[in-house]
Amino acid sequence: MNVTDRNVAGDIAGRATAAFEAPTIADIEAAAARLAGVAFETPLLPLPDLSAMLGADVYAKPECLQRTGSFKFRGAFNRVSMIPEAERAAGVVACSSGNHAQGVAAAAALYGIPATIVMPRDAPATKIARTRMLGAEVVLYDRQTEDREAIARGSPASVVPRSCTPTTMPA
Q1: How far apart are CA 48 and CA 64, in angstroms?
Q2: Is 81 a catalytic residue?
């Protein structure tokens, strides 16, 4: 199934209606290769006090150090990179009120392609501003009266779902 297929058994936000299939080691290795040199390698920081309390080694991964300040960049860039180049040129569209929006906007900017992000009008102003600052066109919608997925489907761009599921991952 192609990442741009709009007739998937689930919605464009990545919620599947089919059973979830975990990614394989090969899927993870391929994603790591696509992200090499693009995503920041964030450290694992030991938490000695919590480790002592729990009797096990505990670590924190400060994803606030990642590009866009969230782990969502990795998923967004990975998905954008999986769109065939000819289709990618038309741009990408995503529905999000925050971190995924910024991840998609940053990934699109790195590829030099347009990004449209469908965001609710009541999303935090800082998220809207940051998404625009990353170069995306932000289309605001009313959660009560409008369908964000219908708005996104009206775009000729490739949809970038928030998660990879069997129905949203390309074959």
Answers
A1: 21
A2: no
